[in-house]
Every structure is written in structure tokens, then in C-alpha cells.
Amino acid sequence: MRDDLLTLLTALAAMVLGLWAWRRWHYRSFWLVAGYPLMALTVRGTWRKVALGCGLTKKRQRWWFTLTPGAVASTGLVKVRRRFQRIAVDTKPWMWLPLPTRHGWRVTLHLLEGQIPDDYSQAAERLAHSWRVHAVRVSSPRPGRVVLSATMHDPLVRIDRLPPSDALLKVVVGRLETGKPWEIDFRTVPHWLNAGATQSGKSNLANALIVGLAPQPVALVGFDLKGGVEFTPYAPRLSALATTRAECAALLDDLVALMADRMGLCRTAGARNIWQLPPGVRPMPVVVLIDELAELYLMADKSEKDEIARTSTALLRVAQLGRAFGIYLFCCGQRIGSDLGPGVTALRAQCSGRICHRVNDPETATMTLGDLDPAALVSARAIPAETPGVAIFAGQDGQWYRARSFLVTEQAAEHAARMYSDLTPAWADITSYVHDTDTDTSELDLTELLDA
Ligand SMILES: Nc1ncnc2c1ncn2[C@@H]1O[C@H](COP(=O)(O)OP(=O)(O)OP(=O)(O)O)[C@@H](O)[C@H]1O
């Protein structure tokens, strides 16, 4: 008898150890074979209770039949007096079978009458706690349906690298929590705001962009309002670098003139943007990286007012018109609040790409993520300091995602800048049309080029 018990205990211990080792060494197969079926049963089995607890049920009149009148029936406490009678019962939304995903599961629900997806977004945290999962995200692929996507653990604690993108002006900078690549594609979303507290991972993201764009036929321009400490090491791959406000103002004037020149070029060729020009004529795209955006707007005394107004207007013009003429902005800053003036608010409206790292104040999160789902703001404020590089990212599709950039050290970015320094176009060459300024000259050059 004792031997049997010992054998049973040993077998149990070996099984637990085996399961632990399986989970530890090959989590994906463990999840699909053992974890997911158990989880699917639990989710289906507990849905009525969970929906009731999270306020997602509706009272509906139903005919109710029971053999034991007086017994407690239905989900609520409904006393049935007769065997067959009409009573109000709590109805749960119809749930399909949960399907496994890379980091958890997802399930489609049919909304009950009067419900909207926002009701589920507001209950997302309660749902996550009820099912003991890391997070539940809500999306609505079509009217009347919501999809709950649950992640068992934070998938961004450790992320694997992905191959770089081959497409022009597109850089894979990290991974989304769905496991998909986090892409910054300037041709789809031309201007970006990248906000975050100190040590949240903003510069790391800028490094990732430098490494991704360095091998591409693109001119890179740096505005480093930290006195040049961030971007000077990347100077070999930068066509121009401004480190003071005065230099920034001059460089912005150049960019506005360049834009006007490209406008003339497109007008002459009957094109709406530089991408409609033939490849031989098309000017090189320019990506402008700005570090510490707030410094451009901070006023120590009234004497700076005019300079700030000039800089702010020029930057806004670049943001408004740059897209068609191949000039793209990537603005980083710790604070992008409305207290910096109306220039920042107007610039923000032009930047449809938003990235919000960990922030200290709710206003920066609100300013950066704007009118996105309130859950995005909650998520941005919940980013822990132990995971630098994690950010809330809003792209072209209007959806928001949690994402984490790949770690790209300053050394890696410096190395890329040196390695591809021969691809750096001289600023004088890029702006050569500007300095000729004569429209006739541009027309002449264009006709010659088109003929060629
Ligand atoms: N994606 C990431 N994965 C791992 N570590 C990261 C990641 N991003 C940043 N870090 C680390 O976090 C630290 C801070 O990063 P970073 O310098 O990019 O922050 P920052 O927001 O630019 O800070 P500051 O405003 O002070 O310059 C660095 O030591 C960096 O190595």
C-alpha cells in the first residue's frame, strides 16, 4: 500500500516536473496542447458568471419551465412559483469558441441590443482579472461583433528581432504585442510624434530609425536641441545638423525653400507629389529627426518671441506641406503639452503618427495620443519603468497597439552612420535648386531630364 502511494506520488511529481520543463523550454507547443484547451473550457464555462459580474448581460423575458417550483433558478436569484411561467433572466452575449493565438486566445462575441464595443473596452480590465490573464483588448471587426483578445503574459518583456524592411522609407523598429512587426512607414504616415519621460526609450527608437534609414537613398537631417550630444555621433550620415535654436531656424528656412522648390518642380511636371515624377527627376526624400522638441518653443524672455514664432511657423509649414514633397518629420520630446503654445498644438494636429512611451504626466499622454480610445491613455500610464522601449503606438489604421522597440545602442547607430556615410548627400546638393531659385532654371533642368 505504501509502495503504491510512493509510486503514485513519484509519477505525479515526474508529471509536474515534465509539464514545467515543457512549458519552460517550448512554451508555444505547451500552450497549444495543454494550456489553451483548458483555458478555452474555463472561459466558456465561466462566461455567464463573468459577463454578469462585469455588467455585460441584459435582462430578457423568457418562458421558464421547472419541475421544482420555488427552487432558485436562472443566473439571478429568480424564484419560480409555477412550473411554467414567463420571467426575466440575465442573458449573456453569445460567445464563439475561443481560438488560440501566439500569446493567448481570442474570442468573438455577438453584442446584445443596445450594447456598443466601448461597453466591453470599459470592462476589459475587469475581464482580465476575472480570467486571470495579463490583459484583454477589445476590437470590433464589424457592426454587432466584438473580439476579445487576451494575452496570458506581457509579450513585450522579451522580444525577438525581425528582419529589416526592404521598402523605401519603411523601418521595422520593434514588435507589436500581437507579435507583428512594428513598422514606421513614412510614406503611409509622414509625420510622427514620439513622446516619453527620460529613460523611457525615445532615443533608442531614433537610433533604430537611423540604423534602418542609413542604407536607404534618403537624406537625413538632425535637429538636436540637446546641444548636439545625441546626434553629433551620427553626423557622417546626416546631411545637415542644427544644435541651437538659431541653427534650427536657418535649417527650417532651407527646408521651407526646398519645399517651395519641389512644389515648382511638381507643378511644372503636372505631378501632385514627388512620387508621381519619373525616377530620374524625383528629388531625394528628406527625413528630419528632431530631438527635444519643447526646446524649440521654450521662451526665456520676450526677446526670443519673434525667433520662436518664426521657427514654429516654418516647422508647421513643413508639417503641413512636406508630405507631398518628400519631407518627413520625426519629433521626439519629453513633454508635448499645450502650455508650450499654440504652435505645438497645431504641429500635433499634423502628426498622424503617435508614439507614447512611459510618461510622467497625464497631459503628455493625452496630448500625444489625443482622441484615441481612453484605454490607450490608461495603458500608456501603466507602462512600467523596468521595460524601456515599450510604447503605445497609433498608426494609420486608427487602432492603437502596445509595442516595444528593439534595443539599438548608440554604438550600433554610430556604426551604421559611419558604414553608410558614402550615401550621405551633401546639403548643398539637395538645396542646389533652392539656391538657383529661378523657376526658369528648374524648368530647363526638368525638361532636359525628362527628355533624357
Ligand atoms: N527597446 C529597448 N529594450 C531594452 N532596453 C532599452 C530599450 N529602449 C531603451 N532601452 C534602455 O533604456 C535606457 C534609456 O533609453 P533612451 O536613452 O532611449 O531613453 P530616452 O527616453 O531617450 O531618455 P533621455 O530622454 O534621458 O535621453 C537605455 O539604457 C537603453 O539601453
Provide a brief overview of the structure:
This is S-DNA-T family DNA segregation ATPase FtsK/SpoIIIE. Helix content is 39%, strand content 22%.
Explained architecture:
- The protein is an alpha/beta fold.
- It folds into two domains: 68-153, Threonyl-tRNA Synthetase, Chain A, domain 2; 170-451, P-loop containing nucleotide triphosphate hydrolases (Rossmann fold, 3-Layer(aba) Sandwich), CATH 3.40.50.
- It is built from 14 helices and 18 strands.
- The protein has helices spanning 2-25, 27-53, 117-122, 124-130, 202-213, 245-269, 305-321, 342-350, 362-369, 374-381, 410-419, 427-430, 432-436, 439-451; strands spanning 58-65, 72-73, 78-79, 84-91, 99-101, 104-110, 135-139, 145-151, 170-176, 181-185, 191-195, 219-224, 238-242, 286-291, 327-333, 353-356, 390-394, 400-405.
- The strands form four sheets. It has a ten-stranded mixed beta sheet.
- Strand 5 (99-101) and strand 6 form a beta hairpin.
- The protein starts with a helix and ends with a helix.
- The structure holds adenosine-5'-triphosphate.
- Adenosine-5'-triphosphate is lined by residues 196, 198-204, 334, 388-389, 404-405, 407.
- Residues 196, 198-204, 334, 388-389, 404-405, 407 line the site of adenosine-5'-triphosphate.
- One of its GO terms (molecular function) is ATP binding.
